[in-house]
Amino acid sequence: MTTADQAPAAPVTAVASTAAAAPATAAASVTAVASDVPAVIAEPGGKVVEVVDGPGGPEVRLGRRDADGPHLRAPLRGLLTASTGRPWRIKPAEPGTVHLRDASIVATASAGALSAYLELAFTPDGLLTLTTTWRNDSEREVTDVAAGLLLPLPADDAHVTMPGVLYNGNPSSDPARKVPRIERGFVCEEHRLPIPAVNAAWEDRYVSVFAHPEPVRDRDGRVTYGSLGLVRSPGLTVAATTGVIMFDGEPDVCYVSKAEVADRPVGYRDLAPGETITTRHTLDWGPVEPRGLGFTKLVHTDLYQSEGARPLPADEIVRLKTIAMDSRWDGDGYLAYEGVRHGRPRSYLYGWTGQCMKLARCDAMLGRFERAGRAADFYVEGSATPVRGLRHARYLVDEERWEMFRRNDADFVSSRAHGETIADLAALAVQFREAGLDVPPQWQEAVEDAAALFWHTRLPEGVVPLGWTPDGTAVSPMITAAGIACVQAMLGAYRLSDKRMWLMRAEEVLAAYHRLHAATFERPFAHATLDASGEDKEAGMYFFLAAYELYRLTGQEQYAQWAETAADWLLTFVYVWSPEYDSGSTFERRGFKASGWPAVSVQNHHLDVFFPTSELSEFGLTTGRTWYAEQADRILHAMGQGICQEPGDWGFQTPGEQGEGFFQTNWQRTGEANTWNPSWVIALPLYHALRMRRVPS
Predict the structure, then answer these.
(1) How does pLDDT run across 647-672, given as a tens digit for each residue?
(2) Which of 383, 384, 380, 362 has the alpha carbon at shortest distance from 371?
């Protein structure tokens, strides 16, 4: 918010030992303090904020009555920063006075021609709001202002989560690729963050800094927001600024596409005499154990009330997506792409972006078992390799031949794609059984053979490798979460054969994944996508699905807890608010809302429909954790946006088609969607809508 006619409130009388006489509210109370403590506020839940005399001058301390010592100490000299000119830089403001006003602490500061007025006050739900107003006190315009808050962290190795873009420093990301990291500093636009916040956890405690995004629209209709991130000042410091950015410690550098950056000076503000900039942030802090689960505090802090879009009921999503699925049917399977529109050969693709077997499951759910069975038979009969259990992933229709994926210019079988396909084949067989139809014995044999391969080729750490060479050996010794889909395949073998061995093996392998990834999240889920190399939403999906399936099969609460934590991690990728878009953009014209949409990965900063939506809903309803079902409903209906409803809509000719990428930030084409439409963009929304339309929205 920028105004020219609203100046900061007048200073109030400095607090002495009469602080306790200030009025209390339901949200906060004023505590009597010693003469060397200028101001203290507290809230009924136990949080305490005090400004005390520190070794380098006054400092803010965030604490709790039930904890020894403060959670966080922030010197007033470094709490506010402002610079003018480009490039922006960290330039601490000079602290002024500290006052107590009603039940809030007020601090003033100055930076050249700018004065700052910072108010700290508790909300009724025990969160701390920081409202900062910067004013140009000079008689001339001040240009290229970059101002903000700095919150120094007490541990240089704090576990940091920036939703959608940075998870504990992105330790599994390919070091040769440009992706967000924290070693030198990373500050990004608020609209790049599904939850506009930073969570930092160390030892047994955490602090979260939330932004309250306010769009600034220039004369040409372009929209900018504030920014959040981490800088070195000199240690690891959370930065909440008026919009400037940083990549790898370089100011004004933006992450603009997959592993690509560009110089892009954004977020600078010009202030006329008397003009102000006001920002609002919220702080939360408390205990967390282990520290890697600090992200759960972000997900369950309810600050944003953005309503997601609901353009289509579930039945209409089913109708439209079924039209698109039917247009992909080619006699033996479903074409991975819309004809040769994208210059790709006509092919059936299994797992990952193809989802032939998921589409067969959709056909079976629609009662079209004959076509579903034909698709499964074609795969089982034709995809085998000389290595038992190892299968090709693609069939080139016009060349009438099968092939594998390629990695480093060599053939390989992806454990993510293979495990996903075999798990869907097993689920399709169960659908046939439940419908009273015969299951071809070769289907079950294919499932058990693949499950045996997954089990016998595990890495020494007990997990499935990233993939296999054509001779069935691990393609890499690297520990990844790519093969968690293979645990689902083992569970499919158990459901088909009733052999307890498969259940026990699945439990053992998932326990290994939990130990390596989910127990502490020091190494978050990564490497499930084939076109990226780092932490990604899809890697966490399969852990959630496997853990939830184990809960359903065993009733053990431990697996429900694992699934819940994984669901929270996945939900850090889901937008809880909706940015505004530049005037004239497709999103602005069509009223597109990001709320409810999942982002993709720390490498690919766009939105897509790949998410375990119906399983999240079922998990919430089955376990009594209904909040998760509510989130799933929001997600399903949000992803109804962008679906072609008539020829020409959203750039497609076939109803039900939908783009793979929706660009909510300045990563590629802000405010636009692409028309790249591999068949998974049909399969996933159709599958989830079919499952969720059984339950009233």
Answers:
(1) 999 999 999 999 999 999 999 999 99
(2) 362
